[in-house]
UniProtKB/TrEMBL annotation:
Coiled coil: none annotated. The lineage of its organism: Eukaryota, Rhodophyta, Bangiophyceae, Bangiales, Bangiaceae. One of its GO terms (cellular component) is respiratory chain complex I. It holds the Pfam family GRIM-19. Residues 1-20, 61-80 are annotated as: Disordered. Belongs to the complex I NDUFA13 subunit family. Residues 61-73 have a biased composition (Low complexity). InterPro entries: GRIM-19. Its main location: mitochondrion. This is NADH dehydrogenase [ubiquinone] 1 alpha subcomplex subunit 13. It is a single-pass membrane protein. Keywords: Electron transport, Membrane, Mitochondrion, Mitochondrion inner membrane, Respiratory chain, Transport. Residues 1-13 have a biased composition (Pro residues).
Length: 80
């Protein structure tokens, strides 16, 4: 048998890592003309959303329990 040839080896992994310059980059001023507040507070939005969902659930439950004007037959209400 003929001697087997060894497969070629890949070159060594030597590279230059891309790094920031010594001392870092200069800062970029991007928030020059941004207002402090642009709308209602988050707590007000949460409260408004909870009220809307609560009203919708209440309206849905009362229309289902009382028969409502739904075209589908409503299941009997568990709590009266």
């Amino acid at each position: 048998m003929a001697p087997q040839a060894t497969p070629p080896r890949p070159p060594p992994r030597v590279g230059v890592q891309d790094m920031a310059p010594p001392g870092g980059y200069a800062s970029i001023g991007v928030a020059r003309n941004v207002p402090k507040s642009v709308g209602p507070r988050a707590s007000l939005l949460m409260l408004a959303g909870a009220l809307v969902m609560g009203g919708g659930c209440t309206a849905s439950a009362t229309s289902t329990c009382t028969g409502g004007s739904s075209r589908r037959s409503a299941p009997p209400c568990a709590v009266r």
